[in-house]
């Protein structure tokens, strides 16, 4: 009876393995102690957070949020997850300081916050990615781990795409057009899109996927990963623009006769509600955008995995 039972369990185990969609994304790199990864993540993110604070890229709260995010992603996700986060943060910071004075003169009065990111901004862009990393570190089921990894890529690709689109798009020589109506709007208006900003958005998402793939090694199962990041990142970024054009709270300054995200305009005037929901600020929009991007990545991952399994089954049946 023990032999029969053992054989039955082996058959069930093989059956579960064959049904696992482990075809596109390898599991997070587990070599080395998680404790040491947590320590390394804490030290590295603390150093980066302190440097960013001194360079006025992060507020005190933003630096604290970056430390928590970096430690969680490095320690629970793995080295490749942490490197992807570093790429997002470094590229976004460099772009935020690129032609900073020109961007400030063009659209500083539009944005609710300046280039110095606070805790809410860090949480909106990296909170969901940190959550995926945290669950990935404690869940042992292989399909769930791969699903969480796909969600992580989608969330971070969206954050990268949206940030690149904002920082580069505001420098466009052409006036942006509102996503919902295609009417021309002022540079920096939420929901406005430009060819330059859209191109930057696509490059941000794609390069994030390439960096993540390179950190995993150029294995054949990873060939679709950059495409997954590109599609999910672009989808999340467009969703961000859609929310910005519809639900995001926007205000009107009667003194300057312009639209802004600020309740109190840079001129000191208390603004009047123009459109959107009062609680739906830019941070809320960014969070929902990363959620949409991660959801798109998970759906695409499972569709590609199922397609690959069906293809293998057909090849097997034809033999």
Quick overview of this protein structure:
This protein has 319 residues and is mainly alpha-helical.
What features would you describe in this structure?
The chain is mostly helical and 319 residues long. It has one domain. It contains 10 helices and 5 strands, in the order H-H-H-H-H-H-H-E-E-H-H-E-E-E-H. The strands form 2 sheets. It has a 3-stranded antiparallel β-sheet with strand order 4-3-5, with no helix packed on it. It is globular and about 75 Å long. The two termini are 35 Å apart. Mean pLDDT is 85; it is low at 1-32.
pLDDT < 50 stretches: 1-32
Profile the largest sheet. 3 strands, antiparallel
Q: In angstroms, what separates the terminal alpha carbons? A: 35 Å
Order of helices and strands: HHHHHHHEEHHEEEH
Our count of domains comes out at 1
Search tags:
319 residues; mainly alpha; two-stranded antiparallel ribbon; three-stranded antiparallel β-sheet; single chain; disordered N terminus
Topology at a glance:
Elements: H1 2-19, H2 34-54, H3 60-77, H4 79-97, H5 100-107, H6 119-138, H7 142-169, E1 177-178, E2 192-193, H8 195-216, H9 225-246, E3 250-253, E4 258-260, E5 272-275, H10 282-318
Helix pairs in contact: 2-3, 3-4, 3-6, 4-7, 4-8, 6-7, 6-10, 7-8, 7-9, 7-10, 8-9, 9-10
């Amino acid at each position: 009876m023990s032999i029969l039972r053992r054989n039955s369990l082996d058959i069930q185990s093989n059956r579960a393995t064959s049904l696992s969609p482990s075809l596109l994304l390898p599991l997070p790199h587990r070599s080395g102690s998680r404790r040491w990864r947590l320590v390394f993540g804490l030290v590295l993110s603390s150093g980066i957070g302190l440097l960013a604070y001194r360079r006025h890229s992060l507020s005190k709260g933003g630096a604290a949020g970056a430390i928590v995010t970096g430690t969680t992603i490095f320690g629970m996700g793995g080295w490749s997850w942490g490197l992807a986060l570093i790429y997002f943060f470094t590229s976004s910071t460099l772009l935020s300081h690129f032609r900073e004075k020109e961007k400030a003169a063009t659209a500083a009065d539009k944005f609710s916050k300046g280039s110095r990111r606070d805790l809410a901004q860090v949480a909106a862009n990296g909170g969901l990615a940190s959550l995926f990393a945290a669950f990935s570190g404690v869940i042992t089921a292989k399909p769930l781990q791969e699903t969480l990894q796909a969600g992580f890529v989608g969330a971070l690709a969206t954050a990268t795409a949206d940030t690149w689109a904002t920082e580069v798009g505001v420098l466009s020589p052409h006036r942006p057009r509102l996503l919902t109506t295609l009417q021309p709007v002022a540079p920096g208006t939420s929901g406005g899109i430009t060819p330059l900003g859209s191109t930057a958005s696509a490059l941000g998402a794609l390069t994030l996927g390439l960096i993540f793939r390179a950190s995993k090694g150029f294995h054949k199962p990873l060939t679709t990963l950059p495409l997954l990041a590109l599609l999910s990142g672009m989808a999340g970024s467009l969703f961000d623009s859609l929310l910005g054009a519809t639900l995001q709270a926007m205000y009107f300054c009667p003194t300057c006769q312009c639209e802004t995200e600020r309740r109190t305009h840079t001129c000191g005037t208390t603004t009047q509600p123009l459109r959107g929901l009062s609680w739906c600020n830019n941070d809320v929009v960014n969070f929902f955008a990363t959620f949409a991007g991660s959801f798109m990545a998970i759906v695409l991952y499972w569709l590609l995995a199922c397609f690959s399994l069906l293809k293998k089954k057909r090849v097997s049946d034809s033999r």
